Automatic annotation (TrEMBL), chain A:
EC number, as in UniProt: 2.7.7.4
Gene Ontology molecular functions: ATP binding; GTP binding; GTPase activity; sulfate adenylyltransferase (ATP) activity
Protein name from the UniProt record: sulfate adenylyltransferase
PROSITE patterns hit by this protein: G_TR_1, G_TR_2
Organism: Polaribacter reichenbachii
GO-annotated biological processes: sulfur compound metabolic process
From TrEMBL, chain B:
Xref: NCBIfam families: CysD, PRK05253.1, PRK12563.1
Pfam families xrefs: PAPS_reduct
EC number from the UniProt entry: 2.7.7.4
Ranges for domain Phosphoadenosine phosphosulphate reductase: 29-255
Highest classification ranks of the organism: Bacteria, Pseudomonadati, Bacteroidota, Flavobacteriia, Flavobacteriales
PANTHER family the UniProt entry points to: SULFATE ADENYLYLTRANSFERASE SUBUNIT 2
Similarity comment text for this entry: Belongs to the PAPS reductase family. CysD subfamily.
Broadest EC class assigned to this enzyme: transferase
Protein name listed in UniProt: Sulfate adenylyltransferase subunit 2
Keywords: ATP-binding, Nucleotide-binding, Nucleotidyltransferase, Transferase
Amino acid sequence: MKVLKIATAGSVDDGKSTLIGRILYDTKSLTDDKLEAIEEKSQQRGFDYLDFSLATDGLVAEREQGITIDVAHIYFSTPSKSFIIADTPGHIEYTRNMVTGASTAQASIVLIDARNGVVEQTYRHFFINNLLRIKDVVIAVNKMDLVDYSEEKYNVIKGEIEYLASKSEYKGQNLTFIPLSALKGDNVVEKSDNMAWYKGETLMHHLENLDAEDINDESQTRFPVQTVIRPKTEEYHDFRGYAGKIYGGDFEVGDDVAVLPSLTKSKIKTINFFDKEYQKAKRGSSVTITLEDNVNVSRGDMLVKTNEEPKIAKQLDATICWMDKEPLQASQKYYIKHGVNDAQAKITQLSSIIKTDFSGIEENPSELELNQIGDIQLKLSKPLAFDAYKNNKSNGSFILINPKTNNTVGVGFIK
Amino acid sequence: MSQTTIQVDALESEAIYIFREVVAQFEKPVLLFSGGKDSITLVRLAQKAFYPARIPFPLMHIDTGHNFPETIEFRDRLAKELGVELIVRNVQDNIDSGRVKEETGRYASRNMLQTETLLDAIEEFGFDACIGGARRDEEKARAKERIFSVRDDFGQWDEKNQRPEVFDMLNGRIDLGQNVRVFPISNWTELDVWSYIEQEEIEIPSIYFAHKRKIFVRDGMIWSADDEVVYRDKEEVVEERMVRFRTVGDMSCTAAVLSDAVDIAKVVEEIRDSSISERGARIDDKRSEAAMEKRKQQGYF
């Protein structure tokens, strides 16, 4: 079964939870007991329609305020695919949660309220989708029922987003525009009778036909070693396996590999998964690899093919999304976690804040506040083996951790 | 040497990756084991993550004393077969010593009392990571929880202030006294778990399959009448029917469903067609809309 991870983003009250509830309802994914609960609560609150957002807003505070605070994960499937939706908050103060939800998504849905058109939030959502280089972005123009299903309104919004897209550095994105009404169900699962002017596909039809295989543009193989497996039993006396997950490309027995950061060379002897050995393993597989030579490999090291070494350096340039109440300032020290590797990092320069409305940058700021995005330079306590984010998402991203609080305070995208 | 190519399923790879992160990042992990299908699935994934080495942490069961005998028997046998240490801590001990008070009456259940015993055990052994089989699709509050969920000294979950989890990176840094609850199968659905059990031919306790059992019906739900732990009114009629259980929690709050699915393939088929969600058969979640969230804040799993 293929799994597609989707992130949804939208501003407060533009009907995101309702859209997800509608998808669940129309794909018959809401079980009887959940549906009953929704019917009951909707009646209690005196609504004359089914409040589908009750299906997704899981926290008391969210139900009280009728907003989404944190990422909820929602699961449903159609006969051809399994879907995981990360339903992310639209509110500016929860931007970090939106980045969190979108970081593992292969596709993204940005909701726009047809009455309000493109608002400040839309710019930010669209910007983050571009920063994260999410390949498939659906612009869902919602609440079309409240603007008389007007093609004109829809076209104005479409034009504005297309103009934004033209200003973005990321050119590999597939943009799809769909006019819909989550509340009434137009163009979500069922084709709308109210918008004959729209010749495109429904939202579900589009999602079902997306190819989840093509997750990103990685091609070179990266194998960060998580832990070394030494059974220390009679039978496996000399077994020394490197456990990790393969990113980017594939690995095959006999491949010449380099161990990073030491650049020691060896060859792949076996690829093990549980009690079997395989000739070849594809990307995304958590396996255990043994090498021909008795080389020194430990957690945080990386195996790559010998002609595909990434950059190895003790400093890096990155774009960072700040996620902590305490602002980032130049000269502060943090822990950096790059994949499964840890080091210490010092911010040597905060060069700019990037405006999330595509209007440019603010140079040499004194600090970077919660939910702001900026460019920084880092000095590292040891060499890391990294790629540019645009070439390899998994090896081109990192998080910063505040040593005082242990909190994850930022997520970085290496240049 | 086999000549085949492997592409490990995404959910399985993710879970194995999480297990390996736990062992690398924590001093004293433990796998919370109930003998139910989710924790049995976890055990298989842990085996795969560290093979050919043994699972490098103990299993621990917080026993309410109200478990199905089939489950307990299964639990002991599995731990023995794997050569893994099994720690059992009993809720009964806390009741006997008067630390917790047992609920009484119609809907009495010991599920809430497990929390206290769990927190005691975490402290007793100094566990810093407790691995559990909770899934985000089970319940609305769980849908919000991270894979590494940080808890304070009191086991409390601060749902409004969770650490961002981006890409595959899991931040397991904690202060002394804190511990992390880890959920490797967060992204699996009930059907994913069943399909995996079928595909891997994993053995599970017999109560998951249809069998003849003495039952009675209350509030439209089917309760086991075999056992003294389930409270029953005099006027509630006992009958014998073919049933199976979808979860194997505390007997007093685990309802059965009518079924003639006697093997895994039939169970999977039944679940595929089912129209009642899994926790719908768990009475203690229905107490209020926020039942699960409240329990989590108090340190429940």
